[in-house]
Amino acid sequence: MADALVDLRSDTVTRPTAGMREAMATADVGDDVYGEDPTVNALEAEVAALFGHEAALFAPSGSMANQIALQLLVSPGNELLCDADAHVVTYEIGAAAAYGGISSRTWPAVGADIDPETVAGMIRPDGYFAVPTRAIAVEQTHNRGGGGVIPLATLRELRRVADDAEVALHCDGARIWHAHVADAVPLIEYGQLFDTLSVCLSKGLGAPVGSLVVGSAEKIERARMIRKRMGGGMRQAGILAAAGRYALAHHVDRLAEDHARAARLAEAVAPFGVLAAPVRTNLVPLDLTKHALDARALAAAAREERVLVSVLGPRTARLVTHLDLDDAGVTRAAAVLGRLLAA
Q1: Per-residue pLDDT for 140 more than 90?
Q2: Among 164, 198, 309, 325, which one is least packed by beta carbons within 10 Å?
Q3: Pair 110, 148: CB distance under 8 Å
């Protein structure tokens, strides 16, 4: 009998639990485009309250939620600042420019290690035919930064920078739940620092689909129009929102288990000199620059032994722990990867 597949590619590969499926099957639904889906409305109110904002909007994906938020903050022809590895400019296929007419400028990629003064020095005011800066975006936790957590003190300083320059601050909070668990920062404390947030239910929390845009009531009313324009209006979406509500009730605190399993994987690969950064949450970044195997070779060899690894670049790979990965899977993955890296 073949070994069970151990999928370390992403925390988006999870399948709904039995309890989540039951919640979806019994969800009270209506037409959300008319604002009449009670489960969607309840999810939006719940998430808005968690982050201390007036309103939230359910969207099909994290990319759409991010792009809606950016269009709320930056009008066409104006500028967004973010880091060079930010999801909004790396993995969203140029959507800010294509859909929002937004110009982007980046500071050097340092993941969660941000220097607020560097960001402050990049902000362009109106005038002299320069492209004016309208918003700053940060990512919490940081995907290509190995799941790093931006310290609360840094975020507070960025809020000061944004206020001084009269620009907005957006959080791509796809994995903000992980930061909340890792640093014990209340979600409402994060929420109060940002004009808008996007938060994801299918990364880490185990829902099959969905993210939310969080902001003021006025912004979310505008966001509803942008979502419709982008094709994101959904009808009886309460079936999906029910999964999100179940995830919030049952899958946030357990993220600590994913963090512990990621630490075990990091400990297993560290002796081979491939750990790219300290592991804080559920992502284990691998830098194979000095190793005989490149990322594709490692992934191919691991796949032969039914362990799946994400390839981020020629010499960059990633391991991700999640709801569908247990201790036995971690043990087997650690043994396989250890053997491949030692060869």
Answers
A1: yes
A2: 164
A3: no
Core vs surface per residue 166-196: b (16+ CB within 10 A) or e? ebbbbbbbbbbbbbbbbbebebeebbebbbb
Burial class (CB in 10 A: 0-12, 13-18, 19+), 42: middle
Residue with tokens 């966001």: 223
Q: Rounded mean pLDDT of 118-141? A: 95
Collapse the DSSP code of 295 into the 3-class scheme (helix H, G, I; strand E, B; otherwise coil) and give the result: helix
How far is the C-alpha of 318 from the C-alpha of 287, rounded, in Å?
A: 9
The tokens 């594709």 sit on which residue? 296
Instruction: Compute the distance between CA of residue 84 and CA of residue 143 in angstroms, rounded to an integer.
Output: 12
Rounded-to-integer distance, Cα 335 and Cα 6, Å? 12
Mean pLDDT of the chain: 97
CB neighbours of 305 closer than 8 A, spacing ≥ 6?
3, 336
d(CA 179, CA 149): 6
Residue that the structure tokens 């904002």 belong to = 53
Domains of the chain (ranges plus CATH)? 6-14+253-342 (3.90.1150.10), 18-250 (3.40.640.10)
Orientation angle between helical segments 238-250 and 38-50, nearest 10 degrees: 40
